[in-house]
Design goal:
Helix 2 runs parallel beside helix 18, helix 4 packs across helix 5 and helix 12 runs antiparallel to helix 18. The protein has a two-stranded antiparallel sheet. The chain has 19 helices and 2 strands. Its cofactor is Mg(2+).
């Protein structure tokens, strides 16, 4: 049995030890093979990008803005080009996929008890749209903050148009996402989704702050930041999808917990790949977190074995040779292995959330389980 290091066990969310045997018992062999998405979800994902672009490029809005410029054609063309930039490159669409699958899962649960129709509603589809728009706006802003020049193997918005325009286009995408969100017309759902943006800001501020000196506080700082920046979007979009199904508060909590666990597992794997994947696979430079002065899970685990990493972490790898030394020590340690095991622990928890939500196996159940497995096994 794998036991988490002492400083991790002392942090309350991780007091439970991880058991690979439990994980294998939860994930039956046939569930580890690809499962086709429900036709309804596939169809919605197929139209989602076009619907996002339509919400960004609403003709009346574009005409209204263009009225106030000397060259309306050039203005509208520039705004359209910047708005389409990340959406046209075709992201993984993980967040809307999870949101739609959670909608289908909660609707299925409600239908079984009320004998009603389990179709995904228009408002639930809007949650998927808003989730992807918020995510894309965050990428634009993150690239400015991190001074990144490439993403997905292409120049970033700020590299192409400059920081000022990149910030404005990120704000514009968020504003349009807000309009889509308001069209749902349910204050509790709107408030839940608004928490995502609040958490993103809090997470970014935590990342800008210097990490605490004690190992336990440092890891808590990292995991809190990771939830705010990644887990919150998964968690609150899943919860919103559940709320719109009309299901119970306990089911809403399960949906939220699934999103939280999946989001944390996703980011933990992302942090591992920053050390092991090639730049071409990632679409951005490797070891980018270290170069930005960020201590992520692998180096925090490595510091438990190599205390000489502590001063490097505290000064955010700012001195010559710090990045190279940290990279070498991480690869000599169990930091990468332990990070994957922690991600697997959250994967186990996410799959257990699904088992409680949908006790009877079926297509939606298996799709959600496989969505967890794909994140744990991905190489980019």
């Amino acid at each position: 049995m794998y036991i988490l290091p002492r400083f991790i066990r002392n942090f309350s969310p991780f007091k439970r030890s991880f058991s690979p045997q439990i994980f294998e018992a939860i994930v039956e062999p046939q569930q580890q093979h690809p499962v086709e998405l429900p036709n309804e979800v596939t169809k919605m994902l197929g139209s989602l990008k076009d619907d996002i672009l339509e919400s960004l490029m609403e003709r009346t809005m574009m005409n209204g803005l263009a009225t106030y410029t000397d060259n309306p054609f050039k203005f509208t063309k520039e705004l359209r080009e910047m708005s389409r930039y990340y959406f046209d490159k075709g992201g993984k669409m993980i967040r809307p996929t999870i949101s739609l699958l959670m909608s289908a899962a909660c609707n299925q649960q409600m239908a079984s008890s009320t004998n009603s129709i389990a179709d995904i509603s228009l408002n639930q589809y809007r949650i998927a749209i808003v989730a992807e728009m918020i995510h894309s706006a965050t990428l634009v802003h993150d690239d400015v903050i991190d001074e990144s020049n490439t993403r997905r193997g292409q120049p970033t918005t700020n590299a192409r148009w400059g920081n000022k325009r990149a910030i404005l286009i990120g704000d514009f995408i968020l504003a349009r996402a807000t309009k889509v969100l308001c069209s749902i017309g349910q204050p509790q759902v709107i408030e839940t989704m608004a928490v995502i943006v609040e958490d993103l800001v809090k997470g970014e501020l935590l990342q800008l702050n210097s990490p605490p000196q004690s190992k336990n506080a440092r890891f808590k700082h990292y995991m809190t930041k990771t939830f705010y920046k990644t887990g919150s979007l998964f968690s609150n979009s899943c919860k919103s999808a559940a709320m719109l199904s009309g299901c119970s508060e306990s089911t809403q909590h399960l949906a939220s917990e699934f999103g939280r666990n999946l989001g944390l597992a996703f980011q933990l794997i992302d942090d591992v790949l920053d050390y092991v994947a090639s730049a071409s696979e990632l679409g951005k430079p490797t070891a980018s977190d270290l170069r930005l002065g960020l201590a992520t899970c692998p180096v925090l685990f490595a510091a438990d074995e190599f205390p000489e990493l502590d001063p490097l972490i505290e000064r955010r790898f700012s001195q010559p040779g710090d990045v190279e030394k940290a990279l070498e020590l991480v690869k000599c340690s169990n930091g990468l292995q332990n990070s994957r095991k922690l991600a697997r622990q959250h994967g186990e928890a996410a799959i257990e959330n699904i088992r409680q939500l949908l006790p009877q196996r079926g297509q939606i159940h298996d799709c959600l389980v496989n969505s967890v497995l794909r994140q744990l096994e991905r190489q980019r």
